[in-house]
Design a protein that fits this description.
This is Cation/H+ exchanger domain-containing protein. This protein has 859 residues and is an alpha/beta fold. Helix content is 53%, strand content 11%. α19 links the parallel β1 and β2. α2 packs across α3, α5 packs antiparallel against α14 and α9 runs antiparallel to α10.
Amino acid sequence: MSGSPPPPPPLMRPEFDVDRLSQAVLCFSETIYRSNGVWEGPDPLTPIIPLFLLQIMVAILFSRLLNLALKPFNQPPIVAEIISGILLGPSALGGIKSFRNMLFPNYNFEIIETMAHLALVLYAFMIGLQTDVKAVLRTGTKSKAVSLSGIMVPFLIGTSLYYSLPHDEKPGGFVFCGGALTVTGFSTLAIILEKQKVLQTDVGKVSLSASLVYDLSSWVLLALGLMTSGSSENIHWAIICSLAYMVFCVYYLRPLLAWMVRKTPEGQGYSEYYICSLLVGMMVSGIITDAIGTHPMIGAFIFGLLVPSQVLEAAVLDRLEDFVMGVLMPVFFVVCGLRTNIDVMASGVSVFTVIMAILFAFAAKTLGALFSTCFSGLSYKEAIAVGVLTNTKSTMAMVILEIGQVQEALSTQTYTVMVVSVLMMTIVVTPLTTMYRPSQNLVPYKRRTIAKAKQNEELRVLACIHGTNDIPPIIQLLESSNSTEKSPISAFGLQLVELVGRAPAMLVVHNSSRRGVCRNLSHEEVQTSQIISAFDNYELRSEGVTTQVLTARSAFPTMAEDICNLAREKRAAFIILPFHKQQSPEGDMEETNPAIQSVNEGVLVNAPCSVGILIDRGHSYSNVPARNIVMLYFGGPDDREALTLGQRMAEKSGVHLTVIRFMPGKDVPEMDPMGFSGYNRSFVSISIDADKDRESDELFLNNFKSATAEDKSVTYVEVVLNDEEEAINAIKAMDGRKYDLYMVGRGRGIASPLTAGLADWCDCPELGAIGDLLVTSEFESAFSVLVVQQYMKSFRSGEESVQSSDRMSQMMIDSNTSNNNNNINSNSTKVEEMALRRSASESESAFESFSSFNGRDHI
């Protein structure tokens, strides 16, 4: 210090004049604010900047190491973060005086606390971006009942706990205690449900939907606690101003943001100008809400809710999330840990009282869920499971407690008891969840194939849609499937949306009354509106049709599992999957998204019912349902399933079905199922019995011919061929016959000399040999292709399991034996080369053997 300072000015008096500051001398230690390194001071950690950097480094290190240590126990990250804060606080290492003075001295606490509250503001903004208010409003009756009781009961118990522990007379403390027990971590719960494979169960859906309401209500309670903990004379002004600001945001600020988003062309990324504008707007909103008596994080959360574009939300989250969650939030949990002191938990009260307080806090959600059984329809077992799951806490619970402590509404003892309660509640959720096994998943359903669906029974179809280009071919296929009052169709349209950012997976059921496209809708909402409109129109135009549209938001690696779970839940007999390639205006098949192929392969492996992959080769542009259908029949269960669907379509007025059965000639040697290309003797899940399969084909076709003998809309043709070459040429020669839809089986387990060599040349193995040929070859006419795989089952230890045909095909290719396969592989190579050189005239001659049977005019 230098100079003899005059008497300090009255800084705390209202009449303090800023101009008088020039007459004052402020006292501070120069080594705290600047440093010339270790050469001028014995302690390099005394200056603020290096000390603050060390604090951040220690906070991140402790959080990451504990998260790594708890990972085998499937604990969510918040558990590691709370424990790391407690370990660094006075309850553990911070209780050592030398450690605290070195790492967390008193003169530096305000700086680290300021950074912690900056983390809260940015965290609140990100939560606002990820919160879907419409999803909260769409929650079902059960979820609303659970939410109502799950808010009231925990809030009352939290209020009782507040008054049972020593507390100050300052108002508003009970709101923070009750609010902390009300919170349920939506993202954390979604991760736990997905890991425990109960996300698609009734309990999982109700818990997840209820947590949406809990999260939104926690912000209301936080704002209420902030307003009530201030001066009682100004509470009404704080409430009025807060409501007025929300009205201004909804009716003026949100339309302004929507206009800004519309200025950006579809598909074009958002520049840094948009990101910076949003961040500045978030800060201004925080300043306004702080000025009216709440907190800056309330304003940041409200501003995040207003952002209308999910793409813009994702762009902001991509820039903020790693920094905020990985760097700043560990600092926040350190501050929480520094305020937590386990030594004072039992001061003034007995240990029994503290233990009972923690137990009652843990039981709050469970009691609330049990109370909801009176009007939610949940059983007691389901209610207990929901109560345990909704005990999962998120950072928001710690935020409420931290704000309550800063506002001096919570004593250190009450704050510590609540922090320990939040920690214990979250820790026990995962172990208790592993004990829950929903019984409804063990109940099988019998109508898993089209063949097993009786003539006068409902056919349940799950149609998957990735984009608007998938809508016309799927609707045309459904319209061709002949729904009647006696043989109805229930069609479930599933919009598949890739998760953008790190939001949790969700399944949304849409109201069929929603139609039209609003200007303020996002790109995803526009697509959803178009899908709903298409299915509504299909239901209105058709007889005996009921529709429902759903949206599944999930990552591509888990999308196949979501499709299979939903098909099982809806008891679907048939799943329609769009192909991952679409025809360009030039006629080429262009890949839209390679991840869709992986999704289709995953569904084929694990589907609980029959599956069809629909390929559009330009027929959907006609906007007319398929009227001229051809079935290419080579034999096997997949072909029989495809022909069953074709027979159903042929019953529709104006539809003509041509069945072409390809048969090997008498001179063609029969193939050994154990010796055809790629067969793996060690794979015994699907037994290929050629004789039995031929008998099944003959019996099925005889029944089919008997049923359609008098039906002029069905033509049956048998064609004798000698090898793969003739099969290729015969199929290619069908180009120009004006077929709208080609139907083929995927061809699993077929030991036919007409297709044995083609499998090794498939670009798309999920389509099978014939389906791949129809897609990859050049055709002049426009048509669609439906590749069908029949559901097959086996019984192992009394349980039903779907056969992994894709795994079988891959294993068959990987385990070729040279003795059995050399001749066939060389023969298939020769066939492919000859087929490529074959002219169109030669293809026509190969087709002459059955062209005379197909001369009838088709409608």
